[in-house]
TrEMBL record, chain A:
Database matches in Gene3D superfamilies: MetI-like
Source superkingdom: Bacteria
Spans traversing the lipid bilayer: 41-64, 108-131, 143-165, 191-215, 244-264, 297-319
Pfam family, one: BPD_transp_1
Organism: Streptomyces cellulosae
Entry membrane topology: Multi-pass membrane protein
Xref: PROSITE patterns: ABC_TM1
Record-linked InterPro entries: ABC_transporter_permease, MetI-like, MetI-like_sf
Family label: Belongs to the binding-protein-dependent transport system permease family.
Protein name (record): Carbohydrate ABC transporter permease
Domain ABC transmembrane type-1: 105-318
Primary location recorded for the protein, binned into one broad class: membrane
Localization in the cell: Cell membrane
Keywords: Cell membrane, Membrane, Transmembrane, Transmembrane helix, Transport
Length: 331, 442
């Protein structure tokens, strides 16, 4: 998992809570006095200054870089052999023609197709199971499911990498003992499963907590009413719980899509272990490769801007769709 | 991480990353009007290095030279320090002193990171072999750094297992192939060694031995890229053939699985550089005293040529306000007997200076206690190092190697080794052309 879901965690938990319960305190703000009209802006200043310094300016600089390139003269040795020149949209044209980057995006989508349904499906099932009245030692189970999320991504990737290597993995030892087939987990399609496994292992707990929190916020009288009407636990889950926690599911889905496009840690950590991983396997690896190995910060900036725009467009579209969906649902 | 593998660099990658935050502030300390070097108070120099314990060597200097204080700042090696230096140069605060891998020199010179220090250190030329000196001058009149350590390639083998299976130490690559086949026959689940697609530095060294010249500058002031030249093709074909035949393993080096292969003896040999004992001690601790080192197999019997895998030098940045003082330190650390002894003792490097390779300074590595003549043999081999030919976009070529040879070793097809080499050539050439270099294909 990348850090994207982590950052969103606080927002996520508040959202469904306030939404689901409908018991948010209905304090009506008193009308602001005329005198203090500028006060809100003063309160905004620190945020705006920090936002500008650490978000807007770097983005602006990246865009500026993406429109330039380096020009070398002659054999390029010594002073003044290199100059930064305007390149217009040249870097962007290169990005869009770069089949390696295109493939990395496709690979990320392929990876996402495995990770997102599996991870969110498991998270939902776990959350529903923990929420059933008969669940025993629920706090312990909840902690255990959540625990892998607390393991840093790089450690998780290295640990799994070790387990994937046939000659050192205890699993392969057991497979060998029982005469079972030993798959090459770094080969072809298995590679996607291997990465997806790490992501699912690490991410399910977080998403489970988000959904579970939303479930806990549902007032119990709804279930009581349903039970009086003769609904079974399964029916309650399918007809009541899932529709009510839909906004949380949409949110977790949304964060997972972003995390998928930004997959980096797992393939980067496993790359030295195998011949099968290209240096541009995922979009972020492609950016890392051009910025930090080929020292082409201009091309890397253009690629980063393209990826950011694509993520933005994708997120926006998804939000619009889910918005319409939930609104229709309510109507 | 595609970092050039090196006994020293492997251990310090993380430490280097941690030091990242400190360096810019330190580097910015120099005053602006100290050009004369005669200002009051000591001159303060910052030294970016990834070698472990380098600060202990600097401490010796600081004690003896109270007017020039050197502070070591730990860095990552490989492509990362190069990117960082280029960025620091852009910001105008590159450190005074820099540890530079030989293959990164043209890239850094091309980005104007390194100063020409020929007027301060031009006279130390005689301390080094011709091949090494050529690397730090890039064949020009300028001197961009002072050689620090060299890493000649050698052939390491398990003496006990060779004896047990009746294998003889190969003197030529033809014999090497025969030994590989014989080893496979004797121990079906073992290999003589592996071809690693994650270590372009080793392949570059082997190509260097075979006469490959990847980057050269021709008389007309043009770069010439010859990665798929005859010598390198020969190397790719040779290893590709053995991998296809199934007598050489295809797994990458520096993985837990590789460590185990060395430790359990399912790899019987390793083509590596002079720093190999430091790797073996951590990768294959159970095999202490069972290895032996011999010269690298030759392409023509009777020849005596080797390549190198790694090695670095000390350069002075063009941002330094105290170039003369920095050059003085660069000269001291790489040629002074006391400094050379400290380099051997603390960062455990194999000195580039000819007098640093004498047995008075170097003591037989503990891991090779069975081979008392380890360092005298090493010195003989080091003297036969072929000159290398590095260019301004080595990392591009290295990444192309990892990607192309990764698929080729996985497929175990000799033909793919050759097409990977052709791709490596075209990617490197295209990249240089795109940047605007005057360049032709050899």
């Amino acid at each position: 998992m990348t850090s994207a879901p982590l950052k969103g965690s606080d927002r996520v938990e508040v959202g469904p809570l306030a939404d689901g319960t409908g018991t948010a305190p209905s304090v009506r703000p008193s009308r602001p006095r005329r005198r203090g009209r500028s006060a809100p802006y003063w309160f905004l200043v620190p945020t705006l200054v920090l936002f500008a310094a650490f978000t807007l300016v770097p983005i602006g600089y990246a865009i500026w870089l993406s429109l330039h390139k380096v020009k070398v003269k002659g054999i390029g040795l010594g002073k003044g052999a290199r100059s930064e020149v305007w390149n217009g949209l040249g870097n962007y044209v290169d990005v869009l023609h770069n089949s390696e980057f295109g493939h990395s995006v496709l690979r990320a989508f392929g990876y996402g197709l495995i990770v997102i349904p599996t991870m969110l499906g498991l998270a939902l099932v776990f959350a529903l199971m923990l929420d059933t009245p008969k669940a025993r030692s629920a706090p312990f189970a909840r902690l255990m499911i959540f625990l892998p999320y607390a393991v840093p991504g790089i450690i998780a990737a290295l640990m799994w990498g070790f387990l994937y290597l046939p000659t050192v993995s205890p699993f392969y030892y057991l497979l060998d003992k029982f005469g079972l087939p030993q798959p090459d987990l770094f080969n072809g399609g298995n590679l996607y499963l291997s990465f997806a496994n790490i992501a699912v292992w690490g991410g399910t707990g977080f998403n489970m907590i988000v959904i579970y929190t939303a479930l806990r916020a549902i007032p119990p009288d709804i279930y009581e009413a349903a039970r009086i009407d003769g609904a079974s636990n399964l029916k309650i889950a399918l007809r009541i719980k899932i529709p009510i926690v839909m906004p949380s599911l949409v949110l977790t889905f949304f964060f997972s899509v972003i995390a998928t496009l930004q997959v980096f840690t797992e393939p980067m950590a496993l790359k030295p272990l195998t011949n099968n991983l290209q240096s541009t396997w995922s979009p972020l690896m492609a950016i890392y490769d051009s910025a930090f190995l080929k020292s082409d910060i201009y091309g890397a900036s253009a690629t980063a801007v393209v990826l950011a725009l694509a993520t933005f467009v994708l997120s926006f579209t998804l939000l619009r769709i889910s918005d319409r969906y939930t609104r229709e649902d309510r109507a | 991480m595609s970092i050039h593998r090196h006994q020293i660099s492997r251990r310090s990658i993380l430490a280097g990353a941690a030091a990242l935050g400190l360096t810019s502030t330190l580097a910015a300390c120099g005053g602006s009007d100290d050009d004369s070097g005669e200002s009051s108070g000591p001159v303060k120099l910052t030294y970016w290095s990834w070698a472990p314990n380098m600060e202990k060597v600097a401490a010796i200097w600081n004690k003896k030279n109270p007017d020039i204080t050197v502070t070591v700042s730990k860095q990552a090696s490989g492509g990362e320090i190069v990117s960082k230096l280029i960025t620091a140069k852009k910001a105008g605060n590159a450190p005074d002193l820099i540890q530079v891998e030989y293959q990164s020199l043209p890239t850094l010179v091309s980005n104007d990171v390194l100063a020409d220090i020929s007027k301060y250190v031009g006279d130390v030329k005689s301390e080094f072999s011709e091949g090494l000196w050529h690397m730090v001058t890039l064949g020009t009149d300028a001197v961009y750094s002072v050689p620090q350590d060299s890493a000649p390639l050698m052939f390491y083998y398990r003496e006990d297992l060779f004896k047990k299976h009746g294998l003889s130490v190969p003197k030529t690559w033809t014999e090497f192939a025969e030994v590989a086949r014989a080893a496979k026959k004797a121990v079906p689940d073992a290999y003589l060694t592996t071809f690693s697609s994650n270590d372009p530095g080793l392949f570059a060294g082997l190509a260097q031995q075979a006469g490959g010249k990847w980057w050269t500058v021709d008389g007309g002031g043009k770069w010439s890229v010859g990665i798929d030249d005859a010598g390198t093709k020969k190397v790719a074909e040779f290893w590709g053939g053995l991998v296809q035949e199934g007598v050489i393993d295809n797994q990458p080096m520096y993985t837990p699985a590789w460590n185990q292969a060395l430790n359990k003896g399912t790899h019987l040999a390793w083509v590596s550089a002079v720093w190999a004992p430091g790797v073996l001690i951590s990768s294959a601790p159970d095999t202490k005293g069972k290895w032996r080192m011999a010269p690298l197999p030759q392409w023509k019997s009777g020849d005596n040529i080797t390549g190198s895998w790694g090695g670095s030098s000390t350069g002075v940045s063009s941002d330094s306000k105290h170039a003369e003082a920095a050059a003085k330190f660069a000269r001291w650390i790489n040629t002074d007997p006391e400094a050379l002894a400290a380099l051997v003792k603390y960062p455990a490097v194999y000195p580039a200076a000819t007098k640093g390779q004498s047995v008075d300074i170097l003591t037989t590595p503990e891991f090779f206690s069975n081979q008392k003549d380890f360092y005298s043999t090493a010195a003989t081999i080091a003297a036969t190092t072929a000159p290398s030919a590095w260019g301004p976009n080595v990392q591009t070529a290295y990444t192309a190697f990892q990607d192309g040879f990764g698929s080729a070793t996985k497929a175990k097809k000799e033909a793919q080794f050759l097409s990977a080499l052709a791709t490596m050539q075209s990617k490197t050439f295209d990249d240089m052309k795109k940047q605007g270099f005057e360049v032709t294909e050899a």
